[in-house]
């Protein structure tokens, strides 16, 4: 029997007077690889932030690993990469290595100290996995957008989380790095059994990656397997043949 | 007068010890505050200190009691700033502005009621490190140990929240508690620092060493160490220079801090050009 990792029930989030999300319900089980797609401003990032308890819902319920998100404490089980680091201060003086190390904080108890042989080897693995060992001592603010993105991805995976939530992780990556990154996600999913929720605009790639697709436009328009999505005449009518083909052609 | 002769004076020794302890604390906390865009919280809390000093002088208590009375009042004000930011959804600078003007208003009102600004009140406004007494050195040393221990215990959490508060929350960091620790430590240091630089200049002790360090830092720990070194140099050199040249100590310390900032800024530009 598959274990439910995330459950979202009748979620409603309002933002500046309008509903950013309306009656959203879905569940993610262990081992899923879920792609969340939708147009700009469709509420994808709000959904992810509500799932992580960063946005209080106006209605509905979110549980992570069976625990309501407001009282959830086992953050070591989750790795998160926010969308393009919003207000990230470019003058921040932390090195890549210092930033990646912060990803291990969720595994510690007060006083949270990151160090020691085990932490060091975890950081080494993450730096290597993202191909950023050579820039470990560089300041994060001095890196290109793609390098920053990789450093933050390393931070998200360094603790080998059970659930990895990635909000538009490939926007700043060049095609080669993007492929390498997708391949790493595949390894984590197949090898470690990591459950992945990937919010993306990269509809061209999502078909070959995810086992399930959720299409959000303030509400859930579609939630099912890619086979269902590609064969659904209703979806063809909704998206148009060209958009549906873009998602399905690589599958 | 030679440096060695100068160091024979008890008041110079006390000034150097207290100044060094306070400057290092201001600088280390300053790195977190500047990066969190809370630089002006020092200024705001210093204005509250003005209000609490006026209250204490109005009540005609001794100088040590002035310092001790200011601590809880400034801490409460720091909590007020946090609550205004969280509950009233007011931006940090506006919350600091509200509490700051309230502190000044109370101070001016009480100064007026007690017959105008006294010499005592002026000494708190502009600071007089050379008048630090033995008890104040002991308080500075105790608070140095407490504040450094707190920063050490919360180091990674402070770093995580400073880097990105939401990301820190998803690492299980209780950002609210960390923010609370940061503002309470800041209020302690502001009260302590009023003797060094005075209420008017105290935020410079927090901001200047931090921005100097950020010009040349190669990592977060390096930034903390460099800020502490810059602050230490400014305070020690500032006290000695001010005594030797008969200048106001607080202002001399701040000007030396500013000179270091200019040097770091220019150095960074030069390094980037080559």
Can you walk through the features of this model?
The complex is a heterodimer of chains A (251) and B (274). With 251 residues, chain A is of the alpha/beta class. Helices cover 35% and strands 25% of the residues of chain A. Chain A has helices spanning 44-51, 96-102, 116-129, 145-157, 175-192, 203-209, 226-231, 233-239, 241-248, and strands at 4-15, 18-29, 33-37, 59-64, 67-68, 78-81, 163-167, 195-199, 212-216, 220-225. In chain A, the strands form two sheets. Chain A has a six-stranded mixed beta sheet, with helices on both faces. A four-stranded antiparallel beta sheet of chain A has the order 2-1-4-5, covered by helices on one side. In chain A, strand 4 and strand 5 (67-68) form a beta hairpin. In chain A, helix 3 (116-129) crosses helix 4 (145-157) and helix 8 crosses helix 9. The longest helix of chain A is centred in the last third of the chain and has 18 residues, at 175-192. Chain A is globular. Chain B is mainly α and 274 residues long. Chain B has a single domain (3-266), classed as ABC transporter involved in vitamin B12 uptake, BtuC (Orthogonal Bundle), CATH 1.10.3470.10. Chain B contains 13 helices and no strands. In chain B, helix 2 (10-35) runs parallel beside helix 7 (134-153) and helix 3 (41-58) packs across helix 4 (63-87). Chain B is globular and about 50 Å long. Chain B starts with a helix and ends with a helix. The relative contact order of chain B is 0.17. The mean pLDDT of chain B is 87. The interface between A and B is medium-sized, with 34 and 29 residues.
